[in-house]
Amino acid sequence: YIVVKELYIRIRERYDKISLSVCNHTIWLLGKAKKWWAALEVYENLLDKGPQPNNLSHELVMSHFKFLLSAAKRRGFWKWCVKLLNKMEEKGLKPGSNEWNTVLIACSKASETSAAVQIFRRMVENGVKPTIISYGALLSALEKGKLYDEAIRVWDHMLKVGVKPNVYNYTIMASIYTAQGNFSRVDAIIKEMVTSGIEITTVTYNAIISSSARNGMSSAAYEWFHRMKVQNIDPDEVTYQMLIEALANDGKPRLAYELYLRAQNEGLVLALKAYDAILKSAKTHGATIDV
């Protein structure tokens, strides 16, 4: 790639004109060598000095941007994702739904609620139709920001425009309604999932149990744990971890310890945090447990 870049620079310096095919080939080779920013420089030269880029030029640079966006998202660099998106628009490239969704997901994973909302709005303003992935990322961001009413409005709008929820969307909404203490709506969500033929898994129940635990509703968390068992859905480490900590923090160390032993009997390995919570609760409330 060093040779290619040097040849490109020399041609630019020595000749008034350069072939577009040479420029496109340079962009392609630099991308293949994972020198995406160098490839972008060549594209910027096309815009500033000519010749005018063609469809192939756009496609090559878009593929590089897509790779950079995906890499930034995987590493949790949400700000880089936003900058890359801005750069694309600055250079006259139109991000598609995949690019917008990549940035949305990055913002959501980083719990950057306001950034996610802003990206979603820009997406709509640019005439890009949000997908089920777009709505899922936005709902997740709103939940993390505890903007539950806004999330419900987004959910209602999503249903109104005919976007069918998937298991991820339903799970987020179950968690949100749980946080609000609106268990009638949680029940309705579960029924809708069954009616829609969507399999209810451990992940959905964990979301409800975790949301109950985070909001100081250990009794509700315990009830949903039993409902989970009745439905023959196996709890995992996350289920027990959240439930044990919730019960211990709510002054129920014996019950928490019973669940700890049950998890061990089921071959699950829990983090020390759960055991520490039991010991702390037992000491605080003067409870005796056989440790």
Automatic annotation (TrEMBL):
UniProt keywords (A-Z) are: Repeat
Descriptive protein name: Pentatricopeptide repeat-containing protein
Q: Name one Pfam family in it.
A: PPR
Signal in keyword set: no
Q: Which residues form the PROP1-like PPR domain?
A: 105-259
- Does Repeat count among this protein's keywords? yes
**Which regions are annotated as PPR repeats?**
96-130, 131-165, 166-200, 201-235, 236-270
